[in-house]
Amino acid sequence: MKDRFIKKVADTLDLYQMVEPADHIVCAVSGGADSTALLYALFTLKDKYGFTLSVAHVNHNLRGEESKRDAKHTQSLASNLNLKFHLKDLDVRAYADERGLSIQLAGREVRDDFFNELIEKSGATKIATGHTATDNGETHLMRLIVGAGLEGLSGIPPIRFPYIRPLIAVTRGEVEEYLEEIGIDHITDSSNLETKYLRNLIRNEIIPKLKEINPEVEANLAAAVLEYRNLFEIVKSKVEIFMEENLKDNCLSTSSLNNLPKELRGEAVKMVIFSSAGDITPPLRLTKSHITAVLEIAQGPSSGEKSVNLPYGLIARRNYDRLCIIKDGNSAKKIDTIYPVPFPGTVEIAPLNIVISTSFDDNAEGTSNVGGDSAVFDIDKLKSPLTLRTRRDGDRFYPAVGRGSKKLKDYFIDKKLPRSQRDTVPILISNGEIIWVVGHRADGRFVANKDTNNRLVVSFSHLG
């Protein structure tokens, strides 16, 4: 088993040309089974490929003594192999609170910043992570459940600079067998057992149920991911040719975009956004809702100006037949400005100085949300995508704990909200209907009640 495992990793390094003799690879190690197996596999192969190796660990300090245990254990792994050890020790919860981020998003930012710092200052050329074929199957299933495009369904890419995934072809079962054979212990993160996170729910409950139906489900998911990845590469290559011929000054003609086969348009929009984003930090992360919103303004009537706000101050703006992506974080008040809101997920909206987070929680209690920072909705009454915008003339909603409908203008007047503030109040929309005047009152037609089975919690906080 040991030799077969190492060969499988080596074949992956060769297939994707992941390493070169001059590389210094930093192995990201949590202390769990996958990253521990990755470390020992790379250590075994480093002389064959001529790269050098060190170990990195991020202590998020989210689990008290257990977090300290993980850091100490990982440092001992590095010491046993006589490898340099890099540690990032940070209170991620405090970091998240300071920036108004979710814990997950804050942790991702901390890790990305740490690894970028290692690339810049320590001579590292690549970061190796322990993602496996099993992780890839779980990711595919997770994105299928919450909604994703072709690239999302194609799972975790083997390479996305500076990250490489040498274990992407091996399963978690193979990892555990390898570690047992070489006699190396690993630790278990207790938070991996908490099913409040969708990935853990899929890993710990859904996959085992699917295995009862078909014991080969993990292999089939991994095969599906590979098929989607191959298909995505074909689509990507066709769109790249289109972009070479049509992209000018970060702009496309909407006629050329709409003449593309429907299956290629989303990838074209994504490419022009990333091309325009340049070196935006932190890394730009788009959702299907962002792409859908841009496609909608590209396909609508050509008169006037329409725009969609994207993460980190980017704006997709259409003027007649011209669709452009611009960097203008101060341009919040545009005609038909739309801010896509994924669910579940988190999005920062810099022009309105807020972060919106959504999550599924069937135990959450409904609220009329009078001045609160969260509201609970009946998912079955909503339609995706949710969007956020500022007020428009004629806006009307049905305030919870109220009678009948009310003009939004009259609601603001009744609440004595200064005129100067009314245009900056975010309005959450589902299928053209106001469901929440954010920070004020939810619409009674959509809030959860005692008969609600599926609940969506939407919360907001201010940036900075």
Architecture overview:
With 464 residues, the protein is α+β, with helices and mostly antiparallel strands. It folds into three domains: 220 residues, HUPs (Rossmann fold, 3-Layer(aba) Sandwich); 90 residues, 2-Layer Sandwich (Uridine Diphospho-n-acetylenolpyruvylglucosamine Reductase, domain 3), CATH 3.30.465.60; 123 residues, Phenylalanyl-trna Synthetase, Chain B, domain 3 (Phenylalanyl-tRNA Synthetase, Chain B, domain 3, 3-Layer(bba) Sandwich). It contains 15 helices and 20 strands. It is globular. The N and C termini lie far apart (52 Å).
Strand content: 15-25%
Going across the major beta sheet, what is the strand order? 3-2-1-4-6-5
Separation of termini? Answer: 52 Å
How confident overall, as mean pLDDT?
Answer: 85
Shape: globular
**Contiguous helical run count:** 15
CATH fold group of the largest domain: Rossmann fold
For the record, what is the CATH homologous superfamily label of the largest domain?
Answer: HUPs
Unreliable segments of 5+ consecutive residues: 329-335
CATH architectural group of the largest domain? 3-Layer(aba) Sandwich
Secondary structure class reads alpha+beta
Rg over CA atoms, rounded to whole Å, is 24 Å
CATH level 1 name of the largest domain = Alpha Beta
Count of domain modules: 3
| Largest sheet composition | 6 strands, mixed
Number of strands: 20
Estimate the helix proportion, in percent: 40-55%
